[in-house]
Design a protein that fits this description.
- About 50% of the residues lie in helices and about 15% in strands.
- It is α/β, with parallel strands linked by helices.
- It folds into two domains: about 375 residues, Rossmann fold, CATH 3.40.50; about 325 residues, Glycogen Phosphorylase B (Rossmann fold).
- The chain has a nine-stranded mixed beta sheet, sandwiched between helices. A six-stranded parallel beta sheet has the order 21-20-19-22-23-24, with helices on both faces.
- A hairpin with a 6-residue loop joins strand 10 and strand 11.
- Helix 23 packs parallel to helix 25.
- The longest helix is centred in the first third of the chain and has 30 residues.
- The protein is globular.
- The structure holds N-(acetylcarbamoyl)-beta-D-glucopyranosylamine.
- The site of N-(acetylcarbamoyl)-beta-D-glucopyranosylamine has 18 residues, from helix 7.
Length: about 850
């Protein structure tokens, strides 16, 4: 029965997605006129972008609404991806491509007197993440929607995303806030001011009979939902990313957030609004800061309240909770979901402790993203007790029964109990979040084969022995081919579609189809087209560098790219030392010898955590080495270096399609997976790398003759580090070529040598990341690259074969593995 009013009147008012050019232009003009209150004669590119974006938003809302209603009616089991970071980048282009409306919009926008490319450039990146972990979450959302899986993301709506990076004339990284929402309304989100929850902090927790407790007092803040629409590729399914914003519960709030000084601004206010004001800019480290813990609890509490409310709407007993809900923890950041769900079940729903624990451990899943010890989260017990008194009780209770079970299985093994306890002894005691995540989860996984093996044999070894191997598995990461091929490399995408003779929606959702490109490696005409596209992508990047930095790039050179967060383990330092080595060699050559050298342009981009001194020195060295090398008339046709400031998803979209080679050169055993390695290879760039993370599986897929491997292997690393500690050999002896480079830097070749001493000393003493061990073989690999590049036709074949074999690395494959083997959810198509 129709709910109210006259059904036919309602039906007449309903609209559907605009798919033809006239209705698209009409909709854009309507938005110019009403939403923006402007007219043709005073409309600039920004206004035109806003109007076009609002028009696309209307379409997304229609699909999003139908999707949510469909899911609500069908009550499928759903999965929730809890991530403190979603590094979405821009939305406009991606939405148009997924809707299949890019051509129509381009035509309409042209008719209105604007240029599509200029409008695309108006959008600011949504940069609510640091690096790989946050971008992976974004790829997984795209794949969930594209594969029609009922998956929601839950995160925080930071007012300030990852800082903007400026580089001073001396080469120093400076940070500025990223007020990404300042430009007015964000067309890609729906404020849900009606969806709010109260979240408590501090106060007291009094135990009641029967295992329950009463938590009261303290501070209460409001969580307000903002829904971000996530369109699938060529499907109506449009999933939801729900981001929480904090608000004071009543009255107004004096927000003392100071947008200038990062380190202090992040900690400056205890107000409710401060909780979601800023993304912590650290990759792989935590400092035990109260505000960060507040963020984690605020977000998990609001998300769980929302999930439980939705479950209660279907009126099933809580014993069936795991049949309707799967919760994926993206690293340990949302681990408080485990004690929080226990608190809801035990204290609020009055479910006995043991039953509640069964529900939790059948609902929650945990993905680990790093084995680096400094990245393993621990929270001081006094801080937890103060901020979350009830959760600390629950953690102690979980720990008690857990350790009793361990004791039963391994009687008298005191060391084991100490190693496995959720609480680390010390001053202060600390809660080990990875242990809690592990025992509270149904499955635990790493993000590439090698990494998952390291998780099982190092950081969670005791837990494997206790709980059995079957709980611990692997899901190798993936990337979405929509953004990382179709969107960023439209010409290559078009060539593939033409060659495979299928609609692009087919191969974009079944990336193994790329295999059909293999025979074309033997086709000279195809190779020519392939190479011409790479060349035009180089020119596009050169144009970008020219217009943003005013620098000219030699597009006849090989493009060599390393773009990622600055970190000692990722070894950008090894790369710049290799560049300097190359420069010194070029300087010694005769003019005739130089004629034989293959010209190379080296690009770096990436941000360092604001407090990471050594990483910032590496940036400084790159910038100053670039300044000297690029100015040298003897060599500048053969070698130039660029550090592109303010790395972002959008910058990656220009850099990746242009690369001939890219570098993924972490010390073996340190990079869990890497995902940009997959993006480069998908776009036909060859990989230079160590035998680490997903590099290994990429080489298996594309063939080892198509990658350039170097360096020591993971099993050797521990011994080498031991030797550095106890039987150190001076760099001059061990690696004269490297010693020469270090001396040149110290002697002031790239400006004040003193400045770099702390960085150089990390290599001369201790050398934890094994630069002295890997330098010669690194240079050897780069020489192999030069040799291989001489045979242009063979190089293009390698490039084609690489792309053709990258099907496995689609995030569709990865998300379907999560859906099938972990979450037990199924696709549900919106009609
Ligand atoms: C990263 C890993 O360093 C990277 O190798 C991996 O590809 C990525 O996650 C996605 O799985 N980790 C992080 O960004 N952060 C932490 C805390 O691990």
């Amino acid at each position: 029965k129709w709910p109210r009013g006259d059904e036919s009147v309602w039906k007449q008012g309903l609209r559907s997605v605009n798919t033809d050019v006239p209705s698209i232009t009409k909709s854009i003009v309507n938005h110019v006129q009403t939403s923006l209150a402007r007219q043709a004669y005073n409309l600039d590119d920004l206004g035109a972008y806003q109007a076009a974006a609002l028009s696309v938003r209307d379409d997304l809302i229609l699909n999003w609404n139908d999707t949510q209603i469909h899911y609500t009616q069908k009550t499928p089991k759903r999965a929730y991806y809890l991530s403190l970071e979603f590094l979405m980048g821009r939305t406009f282009d991606n939405a148009l491509l997924n809707l299949g409306l890019k051509d129509q919009y381009r035509e309409g926008i042209t008719k209105l007197g604007f240029n599509m490319e200029d409008l695309l450039e108006q959008e600011r990146d949504a940069a609510l993440g640091n690096g790989g972990l946050g971008r992976l979450a974004a790829c997984y959302l795209d794949s969930s929607a594209s594969q029609e899986l009922p998956v929601w993301g839950y995160g925080l709506r930071y007012q300030y995303g990852i800082f903007q990076q400026l580089i001073s004339p001396e080469g120093q990284q400076l940070e500025q806030p990223d007020p990404w929402l300042a430009g007015g309304e964000n067309p890609w989100e729906l404020p849900r001011l009606d969806v709010t929850y109260e979240v408590r902090f501090y106060g007291t927790a009094d135990r009641l009979p029967g295992g329950r407790a009463l938590w009261q007092g303290g501070q209460e803040v409001l969580a307000v939902a903002y829904d971000v629409m996530v369109p699938g590729c060529y499907t109506k399914n449009t999933n939801n990313l729900r981001l929480w914003e904090s608000k004071p519960k009543r009255g107004f709030d004096l927000n003392s957030f100071n947008a200038g000084d990062y380190e202090h601004a992040v900690e400056s206010s205890n107000s409710a609004a401060a909780i979601t004001s800023v993304l912590y800019p650290n990759d792989h480290t935590t400092f035990g800061k109260e505000l960060r813990l507040k963020q984690q609890y605020f977000w998990t509490a609001a998300s769980l309240a929302d999930i439980v409310r939705r479950f209660k709407n279907i009126a099933k007993p809580f014993s069936e909770f795991p049949d309707y809900v799967a919760i994926q923890l993206n690293d340990t950041h949302p681990t408080l979901a485990i004690p929080e769900l226990m608190r809801i079940l035990v204290d609020e729903e009055e479910i006995p402790w043991g039953k509640a624990w069964d529900i939790v451990t059948n609902t929650v899943f945990y993905t680990n993203h790093t084995v680096l010890p400094e990245a393993l989260e621990k929270w001081p017990v006094p801080l937890m007790e103060h901020l979350l008194p009830r959760h600390m009780q629950i953690i102690y209770d979980i720990n008690l029964s857990f350790l009793q079970a361990v004791e039963k299985k391994f009687p008298g093994d005191r060391d084991r109990l100490a190693r496995m306890s959720l609480i680390e002894e010390g001053f202060p005691k600390q809660v080990r979040m990875a242990h809690l995540a592990c025992i509270g989860s149904r499955k635990v996984n790493g993000v590439a084969e090698l990494h998952s093996e390291l998780v099982r044999t190092t950081i969670l070894k005791d837990f494997v022995e206790f709980e059995g191997l079957s709980k611990f598995s692997n899901v190798t990461n993936g990337i979405t081919p929509r953004r990382w091929l179709d969107q960023c490399n439209p010409e290559l995408s078009a060539l593939i579609t033409k060659t495979l003779k299928v609609d692009k929606s087919v191969w974009l959702k079944d990336l193994d189809r790329l295999k059909e490109l293999l025979p074309y490696a033997e086709d000279a005409a195809f190779r020519k087209e392939w190479a011409a596209i790479k060349q035009r992508n180089k020119e596009r990047l050169a144009h970008h560098v020219e217009t943003t930095l005013g620098l000219t790039v030699n597009t006849n050179a090989m493009f060599d790219v390393q773009i990622k967060r600055l970190h000692e383990y990722k070894r950008q330092t090894l790369n710049i030392l290799g560049v300097i080595h190359r420069y010194l060699k070029l300087k010694q050559m005769s003019a005739a010898e130089r004629k034989k050298v293959n010209p190379r342009v080296v690009f770096f981009a990436g941000k360092a955590a604001p407090g990471y001194y050594i990483a910032k020195l590496t940036i400084r060295l790159i910038v100053n080495a670039a300044r000297i090398i690029n100015a040298d008339p003897d060599t500048r046709d053969l070698l130039t270096v660029y550090f592109l400031p303010d790395y972002s998803v959008s910058l990656a979209e220009v850099l990746i399609p242009s690369s001939d080679i890219s570098q993924h050169i972490s010390t073996a055993g340190t990079e869990a997976s890497g995902t940009s390695n997959m993006k480069f290879c998908l776009n036909g760039g060859l990989l230079v790398g160590t035998v680490d993370g997903a590099n290994i599986e990429i080489a298996e897929a594309v063939g080892e003759n198509n990658v350039f491997f170097f360096g020591h292997l993971t099993p050797a690393v521990e011994d080498l580090r031991y030797q550095h500690m106890y039987r150190p050999v001076p760099v001059e002896e061990k690696c004269p070529a490297l010693a020469n480079v270090l001396d040149k830097i110290s002697s002031g070749m790239f400006g004040d040598g003193e400045v770099y001493e702390p960085l150089l000393n990390t290599i001369r003493q201790g050398d934890f990341y094994l630069l002295t061990d890997d330098f010669d073989s690194y240079i050897g690999a780069l020489d192999m690259v030069d040799k291989a590049y001489l045979d242009k036709e063979e190089w293009i074949k390698k490039s084609i074969r690489t792309t053709a074999n990258m099907g496995k690395f689609s995030s569709d494959r990865a998300i379907l593995e999560y859906a099938e083997s972990f979450w037990s959810i199924e696709p549900i198509k919106v009609p």
